[in-house]
Amino acid sequence: MSGMRLVLITALCLALGVTAIAMEIGKPSPPFTIQRVNGAAISLSEFKGKVVALAFIDTECPHCQHLTGVLNMIAKEYAGKPVQIVECAFNDAAASRVPWFTQQFQPAFPIGYSQRDPVLNYLAFSMLKPLYVPHMVFLDKHGVVRGDFAGESDFMTNPDKNVRAELDELLKPAVRTSAHPAGKSQTAVKSTASAAAPSHP
């Protein structure tokens, strides 16, 4: 009996690890705070009334560095529109590396950092699954989650085009769905033993 119970518990844990890897599209964004090296922390609730493009990054990840350049151009292009781009680094040395990253890539939007666990909690992401970066979340003007795109999703193969398409869709009146519908979300489909935030392939 004890052996069967152990098998059932193990199966339940594995099932939870497989399914609990997605934000709920169409639901209000959970609270989340991004720490700043110099300056006050950023709360996502501050951006109500704006479309938010939130990128979770690793400061050492080449894909994240490339995305920052893309978002930098988009931020300048969408200046004057109710759009807010923000990045949150959560690699182990993020707090000490954000100043270097900021100086190197000159983002035209706020960038800060967080510990890994709050990021996983915000994304409703299982600790048993790898979280590929960059990972992007889009909120509408009411703070509702409208897009959740993992680092290895198709969305990230062409962020220059896809981020613009997502923002344009969310800027339309009475937006109800993501420009790139993905059921619950576009989540990780690959596995790795690494506990760090891996870059997408």
Q: So how many helices?
A: 5
Helix content: 25-40%
The global form is globular
In total, how many beta strands? 7
CATH superfamily: Glutaredoxin
Rg over CA atoms, rounded to whole Å, is 17 Å
Q: Write down the domain tally.
A: 1
Distance between the termini: 44 Å
Mean pLDDT: 84
Keywords:
alpha/beta; Glutaredoxin
Characterization of the model:
The protein is of the alpha/beta class and 201 residues long. It has one domain (2-171): Glutaredoxin. It contains five helices and seven strands, in the order αβββαβαβαββα. The protein has helices at residues 2-19, 62-77, 94-105, 116-122, 159-171, and strands spanning 33-34, 42-43, 51-57, 83-89, 111-113, 135-139, 145-149. Strands 5-4-3-6-7 form a five-stranded mixed β-sheet. Helix 2 crosses helix 5.
Please provide a brief summary of the model.
This protein is 33% helix and 15% strand. It has helices at residues 2-19, 62-77, 94-105, 116-122, 159-171; strands at residues 33-34, 42-43, 51-57, 83-89, 111-113, 135-139, 145-149.
Would you spell out the secondary-structure blueprint of this structure?
Layout: H1 2-19, E1 33-34, E2 42-43, E3 51-57, H2 62-77, E4 83-89, H3 94-105, E5 111-113, H4 116-122, E6 135-139, E7 145-149, H5 159-171
Parallel strand pairs: 3-4, 4-5
Antiparallel strand pairs: 1-2, 3-6, 6-7
Helix pairs in contact: 2-5
